[in-house]
Amino acid sequence: MILNRRTFGAISLAALAAAAGTPAFAAEPIRIGAVNPYSGAMAQYGDEVTRGFEMAAAWINGQGGVLGRQVEIVRGNATSAQEAIAAVEQLVGRDKVDILVGTYVSAMSNAASEAAMNYDKLFWETNALARTLTDRQLPNYARSGPSSNEFALRSVQGALELVAPRLGKTAADLSVWIEHEDSAYGTSIMEEQLRLFKEAGLVPTGVGAHSARAIDVTDSILRAKTANPDVWISTGYVGDTNLLLRAARDQGFAPKAIILLGVGDTQETLDALGPEFLEGVLLVSYARPDVNEAYGPGSDAFLAAYRTAYGRDPIAPQGMNAYVGLKILFEAIAAAGSTDYAAVIEAARKIDKPMNTYEAGYGVSFDDNMQNVRALPVIAQWQSGKVTPVYPAEAAAAGTAIVNLPRG
Amino acid sequence: MTELVNILAVGLLLGGIYALVSVGLNLIFGVIRIVNFAQGEFVMLGMYGAFAAQITLRLDPYVATVLVGPALFALGAFVYWVILRPLQGQPMMQVFATFGLLMILENTVLALTGGTAYSVNSGLTGYSVSFGPIQIGLPRVLVLTAATVVTLALGWYLKSTMHGKAIRAVAQDRNAARLMGVDVERIYMVSFGIGAALAGLAGCLLSPLYTMSPQIGMNFIMPAFAVVVLGGLGSVKGAYFGGLIVGLTEALAGFYLDPALKQAVLFLMFIIVLVVRPSGLFGTAGAEEVGLREQS
């Protein structure tokens, strides 16, 4: 072959392309599809969860990635279960993701994980709460964060361990009213609360259900007021919870303790009710970045990184829960040596980390249904217009005291 | 006994909310024969208008009504002229158009707010008035008072002013009214504007009671339909008393049966009234048919 200028040029270009292409192929990122609502009513929380994913990806990429590959988060927008299926199809088909993660909404998690199963993809859940998600025993599904049962557990612990002693009452003497929104979310938590209270020898004074879309919930408050409970525990969404609290204020319903589950810890509730009314209200919630560093090692660094990235404090604690969830996923992928769902699930099953290993205070131990049983929410309290962790004691900052309990 | 009186008071105050939301809806139906699905979104816009007035001008939501009401009137008149007037003679298309408007308004506010829920506070927020053992939030008393005043004022306006008489004439027979020299299109536009302004007024007065979300209008519109059917399609008085009846029904069912069942009880009553007395308690017999009958 005569090596003329044209042939030389062609060979040189091919060599350059090969040289550039080979490392690029080797460093093909692990693509993770994040299914969440990025539009619609739940957009700000879907965004916040995915910010947690993106921060975890940035963190692991700074460590050199997983299996020598960088991690890339690809967003898939879904505002309903049906859209979640379409989002999975798009993420797998068009964006070629290796793994799917999510979600802010249990119904979406349910649909998206089944769609992921059709493509043999892992669906790693961090935030959706419904217990039934893991009870399905879907082979591609694991949940790193707490389920609704753990939220119910913490609320019962709050009533029995925080409130009862301060009222000088035993568990059996305590009167409790359980209020819940009437969908599967609120109902499942209420059922677990009833079971746990029964185990503790306490029969709640009453149980009330309301629609999250109700125009008025004064009737629910009057029913509870008539029962005159020591503790009023409520599970709902932002709008109905604020409406219940406003009705309680207007009707002069003043239980000695109020415990809210899942909501009530954001600026939206502070704006609606004001710091004076909220003073002392207990909140069962994901651990916040201001949790005691000894309880959630790395939480201070997470908060600093968040502020650097977004120029403000987190909107809600869901982001740090998502961040921790992805860190656990990276460990499982590293242990599995691949992104194959069966291998990752098997590797995750073998991880054994004590409580207080991660920023949110979690450890890792998956049960037979692939629910991480070492992921628990904390109890926080409104104190002077700020949400402060108070339970378990080690989650609270040094010198933190419980205030306004019983409510004055 | 105190318990019953208390729950009756709660029901009446809730009825005031329903009445205030439904009066405009029923006026629009009575005159233009359009079931306006976007009426709840006008209420929502009124709420966000009160919020905007508070953060920009530091106005109390009750004071903001003087800005929000006219703004919603202008929006309503514009919507009628640009969207609904071209569909005149196609009542089903007009209904679909209001549904489309609902989606546009809801999603536009959603895009602007990013789904963040906001609250508006008034100087009266948190104040209660006590009647013996009964405690009532002052903002709710104001809503019931406003609903009563609006109903009386609207009734007087329709009965005693030339423009009101023209509206009633169009509501009774648009063709005869046109032959008498009434500018029917203008009456439609003004009526739709008044309906929207009443929704805006309701939004301002309700804003201290609720945490706002772009979807909140939908929460109001479903019971409002029950109110207008119960009270009588096209009747302002019917909307008022229908609202009170629906409020009382919900409160009594919610307290004495189960809050989770109150909507079921309400819509059971809705169906019974539809079957037994289609014109409602104060409606004109045949109004429910006229609403779907093509008039050109």
Overview in brief:
Chain A is 45% helix and 15% strand. With 408 residues, chain A is an alpha/beta fold.
What does this entry look like structurally?
The complex is a heterodimer of chains A (408) and B (296). Chain A has 2 domains: 30-146 and 296-350, Response regulator (Rossmann fold); 149-285 and 378-395, Response regulator (Rossmann fold, 3-Layer(aba) Sandwich). In chain A, α12 packs across α13 (341-350). Chain A has a 7-stranded mixed sheet with strand order 7-6-8-9-10-11-12, sandwiched between helices. Chain A contains 13 helices and 12 strands. Helix content of chain A is 45%, strand content 15%. Chain A has 408 residues and is α/β, with parallel strands linked by helices. Mean pLDDT of chain A is 92; it is low at 11-25. Chain A has helices at 5-26, 43-62, 81-93, 106-118, 132-135, 148-167, 184-199, 218-227, 238-251, 267-278, 299-310, 318-336, 341-350; strands at residues 30-36, 71-77, 99-102, 122-125, 141-143, 176-181, 206-210, 231-235, 257-261, 282-285, 378-383, 386-391. With 296 residues, chain B is mainly alpha-helical. Chain B has a single domain, classed as ABC transporter involved in vitamin B12 uptake, BtuC. Chain B has a two-stranded antiparallel ribbon with strand order 1-2. In chain B, α1 (2-32) runs antiparallel to α10 and α2 runs parallel beside α4. Chain B is globular, with a radius of gyration of 19 Å. Mean pLDDT of chain B is 89; it is low at 288-296.
